[in-house]
Amino acid sequence: MAGTGPVGPPSRLGARDLLSEAVAGVLQRPGRSALTTLGTVLGIGAFVAVLGLTATASGQIGARFDQARATTVTATDHPVTDGVPPGANPPTGFPADSDARAGRIDGVTAAGLWWRIPSDDLRISTAPAAGPGVQGLALFAATPGAVAAMHPTLAAGVTLDPYAQSAALPVVLLSRTAATRLGVTRLDAQPAIFIQGLPYTVIGVYDQVERLPDTLLGVIVPGSTALERFGNPGTGGDEAAHLLAATRAGAADVVAGQLAVALRPDAPDLLTVNAPPDPHSLRDRVTSDLTGLFLALAAICLVVGAVGIANTTLVAVLERTPEIGLRRSLGARTRHIAAQFLTESTALGTLGGLIGTCLGVLTVLAVAAARDWTAVLQPWATLPAPLIGSAVGLLAGLYPAVRAARTDPLTALRGG
Q1: In the chain, which end has fewer C-beta atoms inside a 10 angstrom radius, N or C?
Q2: Which stretches does DSSP call E strand in 150-197?
Q3: Is the pTM above the cut of 0.90?
Q4: Residue 66 exposed, middle or buried by CB count within 10 Å (0-12, 13-18, 19+)
């Protein structure tokens, strides 16, 4: 009779036995174990992949930023507006030899003046006759130094040279978009376009610019030609004269500090110099934003994986109720039953973490190779990933393990 017979020594369940029982439980149902592990695989894989891709993409963003933005310095004119008639004042606050003055600063690779010519009422067309011109094209004035600082990619022809600037030649550079809209396909016949009915010879077509992307929808005329035919630059926005300076990497801050004095030593306050923002702070902000977003997505994947493990482990507890009753009747304690199911769920989580980490690393390497990027994998994001899978499996198995431990052995045996 229960409670009156001899009482044996308390049962024990060593770590080795516990592990072998957990492995046997996992291998007993390989299909279910594989599906249970899939959630953790996806979660950990997404965790490693998004962190690796974020670090890799951020490195590329920083590199692109360093190449383009961190090597650009601009100076803006504040023209004199004292009420005198147009043309009485100097056309701009910049000296006539601004290109040469800025170019002599150590670190400047190219520099020149540019401004946008109000083109809403200008007629740009391929014929001198009156009528509607091509809409949507912007007209810019630029010196040869400014065009060089824009660093365009020439699709055909040549760029502006000092002679075109000094002689105020009626020539133009067309963006590829402008050339297409104007029907200019070849330059060997020296085609011409008409602005306000006056002819301009097309000497070059460009399709990319490293700086001033607004010119990708534009027509560029020499600055001296623009002054003769369209008057002085405006007094605000893009219509005011600007000096664009391209610098060597790392020299932008020094150039910005010297530019106003080099151009106007008599009145440097007439010019506003804009230096590029700190690339490191911008890159850090981009990295922080991307990391926060993708970590949230990875966390969602892990929660989904944990719910999958918990659900499957709970179903396993229900299916193995007779087995639990038999173990309890043979002397197994409640903590032994709980430890067995916790070990099984933790093993599944660890296995999913290992597989997910491998898949995440392979994904980062594949994307980097396909995009010709340098893969960046942080050790703090990769090495702990399998442990995160173990933690997810452990947490997911808590409730099923407690429920299995509380199973009454007599009820379990009767139910089986």
Answers
A1: N
A2: 152-157, 171-175, 192-195
A3: no
A4: middle
- List CB contacts of 343: < 8 A, sequence separation 6 or more: 18, 19, 21, 22
Distances (CA, A) of 365 to 50, 370, 372, 406: 12, 9, 10, 47
Cβ-contact 73, 245 below 8 angstroms = yes
pLDDT at 99 over 70: yes
CA distance 200 to 217: 17
pLDDT digits (tens, 9 = 90+) for 193-236: 999 889 999 999 998 888 888 898 889 999 999 988 888 887 77
Q: Backbone phi, then psi, for 7, in 5-degree steps?
A: -100, 120
Name, in order, each residue with C-beta under 8 angstroms of 167's C-beta and a sequence gap of 6 or more.
224
For 103, the token pair is 């170019």
Longest dimension (CA), the chain: 120
Residues 50 and 46: their CA atoms lie apart, in Å, by 6
Alpha carbons 201 and 182: distance in angstroms, whole number: 13
**Tokens at 8, concatenated:** 């044996």
Interacting residues of 27 by C-beta distance below 8 A, sequence separation 6+: 33
CA dist 152 to 210, 369, 387, Å? Answer: 6, 29, 51
Size of the chain, expressed as the number of residues it contains: 416
Helical H segments across 233-384, by residue range? 252-263, 279-319, 321-329, 334-371, 379-382
Beta strands at 218-222 and 108-117: parallel, antiparallel or unpaired: unpaired
